[in-house]
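retry 2 of 3: previous attempt timed out while embedding magnesium ion. Reduced batch size to 1 and resubmitted. Inputs unchanged:
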Amino acid sequence: MRLVSPHQQVGQPILQAKGVTKRFGGFTALDSVDFTVAPGERVGLIGPNGSGKSTCVNCLTGALTPEEGTITFQGQDITKLAAWQRARMGLVRSFQIPRPFNKLSLMENVQVPLRFALAEAPPEGSANRAMEILASIGLDSKADWSPKDLSQVELRKLELGRALAASPRLLIADESMAGLSDSEVDEIVELLERLNADGIAIILIEHIMRAVMRFSQRIVVLVAGKKIADGNPHEVMRHEDVERAYLGQ
Amino acid sequence: MDFSWDLLLNAVASGIMLGGFYAAVAVGITIAFGMLDIVNIAHPAFIILGSFLAYLSINSMGVDPFFAAMLFAVLGFFFGRYFYRAYYHFFEKRGDDSLQGLAFFFGIMFIVEISLVLIFGVDYRLIDLPYLAKTYEIGFVQIPLRLAAPAVVGVLMVLAIQLYLSKTFTGRAIQAVAQDLEAVRFVGANPIKTKEIAFGIAVGTAIIAGMLLIVIQSVEPSIGREFIGRAFAICVLGGMASLPGTLVAAMILGVAETLTSTFLGPSWSPAVAFGLLLLTLAFRPAGIFGR
Amino acid sequence: QSAEPPIRIGMGIAMSGGLAAFGKSALLAMQIWAEDQNAKGGLLGRQIELVYYDDQSNPSVVPGIYAKLIDVDKVDLVISGYATNQIVAAMPTVMQKKKVFMTLFGLAANDKFNYDRYFQMQPNGPDAQAEFSRGFIEAALSMDPKPETIALVGGDAEFPAIALAGARENAEKAGLKIVYDRTYPPQTIEFASVVRAIKSTNPDVVFVASYPPDSAGMVRAVREVGLDNVKLFGGGMIGLQSAALKSQLGASLNGVVSYDLYAPEPTMKFPGVEEFLVRYREQATPQGIDPLGFYIAPLAYAELQILGQAVEETQSLDDEKLAEYIRSTEFKTIGGDISFGERGEWAQPRILWVQYQGVSGNSIEQFMEPGRQVILYPDQFKSGELKYPFSEASK
Amino acid sequence: MRLCGTKTWKGLILGNSITIKGLHAGYGAVKVLSGIDLEVRSGETVALLGTNGNGKSTLIKCVMGQVRPTQGTVHATIEGVEHDLSRLSTEDIVGLGIALVPEGRRLFPKLTVEENLLLGSFRAAARAKRHESLAFCYEAFPRLKERRTQLAGSMSGGEQQMLAIGRALMTLPKILLVDEPSVGLAPILVARTIDTIAEMKQRLGLTVLMAEQNFPQAIRIADRGYVLVHGHIELSADDPQSLRDSDIVRKLYLGGD
Amino acid sequence: MSSTYTSHPAAKRVLPKAFSLPILLFGVALVAVELLIGTQVSEYYFLAAYVILQYVVLSTGWNILGGYAGYVNFGTAGFFALGCYTTIALNNILPMPLPLSILAAGVVTGLLGLGTGYLTLRLRGVFFSIATLALAVVLQTLIVNWSFVGGARGAYVLRPDAMWPFASYVHYLLVLMTILAVAAVLVAVAIERSWIGMGLAAIRDDEVAAEASGVPSLRLKLTATTISGAILGMAGAPFPYLITYVDPPSAFSLALAVNAIAMPLIGGTAVWWGPVIGAILLGTTQQVLTVTISSAANLLIVGVVLVVFVTVAPTGIVGMVRRFRKGRS
Ligand SMILES: Nc1ncnc2c1ncn2[C@@H]1O[C@H](COP(=O)(O)OP(=O)(O)OP(=O)(O)O)[C@@H](O)[C@H]1O
Ligand SMILES: Nc1ncnc2c1ncn2[C@@H]1O[C@H](COP(=O)(O)OP(=O)(O)OP(=O)(O)O)[C@@H](O)[C@H]1O
Ligand SMILES: [Mg+2]
Ligand SMILES: [Mg+2]
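retry 2 succeeded.
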């Protein structure tokens, strides 16, 4: 398992984003967003469609470079680090639209982060570890299948499995439950809770409010690229801006 | 070379005319490669085929090549449609990488080239049209019709196709089909037919570009290979699937070549032209007009 | 008739790719020689068979072809394909087997090897680089008033590079000031900007060294841009010798001074050449091969005449004897009298410089008549006078 | 809306319906559907319920001619004329007047919003009315009008879903198939999207078959429903209430094992 | 928990060892045989074998980038030619034994590969391919204008005499090329079976997702472009000694670029033996055709073979064999 970075002191947030701004052409998708996550915290990130949630994830994990702002992870400035370096530090995400390695088997799909994202790669044990992960997402019986033969839901699970394999300190799950049945949503929530119990902080991006409410200790709401609320789930839900902009009714 | 306005303006004018011709060469690549994702490396071979058809038409039938090229372009269109159908059957239907198609087109390139050698021999051929022998002078800028006429035809061709793509339903479907083949069906269009038409158009433009080429310079069967790099470079520089981009990129390449060749010495012109491409790619990876 | 196996002459020759036009023309001439010779009973009483492989204009297949010809096919004699690259690529193999090597149009290809069984058919003489443009510069100097400046331009390839280097030397020796000296890359389409750049330096003489498509492009660009003040225009423009470009350029050629290897002028009526050209043209036209056959065909035929004569006279296929004979004999061929000197080059160089005069329209037939390609140099073959300045001569 | 009034009228008179009998289908060795009987009658909104991987999308693909049945029949009646859909290609089925809002949206990412919409009017019957249809779409989804020149691929998930519905409407369909319209939408938009579908149905006189996970939302607008479990029809309910009351639904959706 | 899965068949597929002894032994045996038959066999066969092995090296080198990482290099001829010209330049500065020139060429073209990687690091798919094509053109222009290595005029490289134990210089060239081919294949096998190969495969499928999984894509890509470039260049280093006289058109020949792509495709790009089989098959066909059908038609036949092959066996011979095995079991 990964050691806590020497820079980090107890009580310090694991992730801290300050003034993150991202523009596409003239359009500001993220507008000076501040964001912190404490170690082991469960944060829900919600917001209307197009409010910039995925963009935020992309900036945090290095898939996009923000125009302004700094991002600190475990006490270290990671604003300029590449996506893979952040993944190795334990800042791991899943993709909203699944992006499996299509020419690799499910087994190999999970082995890639096992070999690359861990500080000390376990060459011998990696196959067993990969099977464990596949089992935890219920895909162990399809270990040598190609991702092309999976349904949408299975692809989402694989997406999550690949993120798990990278041994995250902070896992960002971008709509991992979209399209799942309630019982499956519960399954995933339980999985996430189990991970959280191991000390992994989790940011959950989801439109399924039942899951968000059940899971989150804190909820952050983005609207049109701005953070409009941040705090206790029930308070946030009663926040009138949030009601107006997001929940409706 | 000493600088003079005379040289500069003439170089730019020549470059634009050359660019018009390059646009005609590249437009088919932009359609096939940029829009349909078909790496048609044999496109230049089709161009040479067009050159020889034009040559044949004037020398054995006495038909004006501009007119004949239109007719042959229609034939080329139908040939292209059937050709694409075969390509579809063997590659796309099986869901293979376009990489396989690449080898296929290399093969086609050899077949077309050598067939031309076997039929027409290996001599350099050229069409000298008396009515293009004139050179107009505007101020001190010289406009030889031999270069200007092909440029005009090339530009008109690109504009006409652009109009077709943006204003007709089939045209829009052609743009859409490369992005999501199956989804085209959801709007009621047959994607295979759509691609057939697009590839047909691409081959048609090759035939016309071939006619323009043999009016401009002498042609022998293996000369087409030399256009592969330029045509693809223009397509990429222009942003892959954009015809206005292709037109502008062709002009840029043409002007860059004539300017270097006038002021720096011609031997550096490919380095300048392709260096430009490399720089563009390095700083704006999607090309000038990339979306 | 004869029970003896045929004498086999092997070569690799370009039948596809960029050099194919020359390769095919040369091969046809050689086949005609083989027919002629076989009709006369062959050599040493044996029939002659040509064994040839397509080198695709690609020198990297050449070593293999010659190894196969010599080792596997066990041909009796080898000759080269067209042009320097192919010749040089074959040299190590041929030298290792100590074969006599008659070669077709290598530019100074033996300078590095100094192989004593090498004989080369292009009439460059031992110092090809300097010799090539000598006639052109002399023609330029013959003008009155004497020209003062010269522009040099050529393609980025082996032949133009050597031709330009020679022209540079000769021009400097003649006291001409070089006002433009540039090269252009192989895929150039648009020559007007090159010509305009040249024009802006205002030279008296323009020397071009080019390959076929560029030669045509250059001449057309010159016509369009106009070189009003230039006194003499021309150079080593390969391709102008071929029927295809001659007929396409037609009257645009008037005034251009170009190098050539044969011209149907009265001064060049070597015995047998006219009959050869008649037979060549009969076969060339239907095969899509150059129908005039001036550039390479007579010397390709002559090459085998020389080899044949050597075999007949020495009554042997022994390479040492053949080489000895060829080295020491003056041959009378349809390409003229030839004797070999240093490094297997022609002892007496014979690069022709011709000026196109009185061309009208685009018919090929006119080029078969004398008077269209007037020989200016060397004096021995001179058949007319230089017209100048260029704008006058172009009329 | 004016343009639709006549459609409603025709629809009522001539009838647009889908009839599926004894359908078996799958992907190669993977058998997904077995013995499906299903009917969508003229003017109805039918919900196709069922948890993931139970074959909802596959069923819709069978109707659209993307998956060929191994057994059974798929017929559609359009304006009183019956067609055997299992013999037609997808584009021909769309040509008849059956439109699909596909799973995963399947937009043309590098075309603009407006180009995407206009392509919707490809089929001959829709071309002439494209301007009216476009105005209608922009009225229904003002967001799309705002973003008409943006590339579809750079829109957020929810925006894309609107565009996908808009594009389907541009074909002027008689029958609309919708595969999971609410996936990935914010709650506020889920309800709005479902409402939009209901509204479109009303205004355009559509017949709708909708596959949906979100049971409470689907049930709001459905006239009838089917529940698909492991490729069988487990329940076929003739009114929304009986769906709500069913044990199967409770078990599947409310996690009451 | 982990013990539950030790028996699962997929779990047993632990990556095999990266180094392949059998290939090395085969290579040693091949060289030994070549040395033994040195004087008995016509040089023609040596030359033919040399050309085929040269293609084995080229297609193996190309495949490291094109097949494993999915970056299609159109500029093979540029790397090959740079290898040639390294030999020529070294020969002009200070003549040295050919093996040293080959190593030097590997270093130079490896650096070019590294540079290409840096220059094109933001380019994906076809953009990368076109960039490599452009790079080859720029390189050719530079060589054409660089008179030290002959420029447009070309350069001569004369063969020295052959030394013991080689029957001739061609024999020596053949043995060198054999060693090079075996080395290239060993490198390809090592990459394929190691974590580099897995990372490249992930990059090939989805670079963004690979990065998110911790794959240092830039570093791996640079590794691949460097190794691939070095192998392509080393294939070119002995070439001047084969044809004695090199000018830019023969070094930057289109045929090289075409073959380097066509051969792996015919063989199959997923595993190391795909390009090897492809090179042997297509290379042999070309060699045989050159000396049997002595006309322009031989290129025609190569074209037809290419077309027929990719239409009939789209996944290459590797795919065919796999399907055959699947069908049997
Ligand atoms: N192309 C395919 N090849 C093989 N199997 C497939 C394919 N597509 C889907 N399947 C399988 O068919 C089954 C049914 O899939 P389908 O997409 O119809 O389910 P669904 O009910 O629409 O679920 P979802 O909620 O995931 O959309 C799944 O188990 C899936 O694995
Ligand atoms: N590459 C891009 N170019 C232009 N605009 C973009 C780009 N990527 C995203 N956008 C825009 O930025 C906004 C935020 O998008 P983002 O995907 O982050 O939303 P989201 O909150 O994840 O929405 P959803 O819940 O629908 O997934 C959207 O309006 C989208 O159209
Ligand atoms: Mg999102
Ligand atoms: Mg579904």
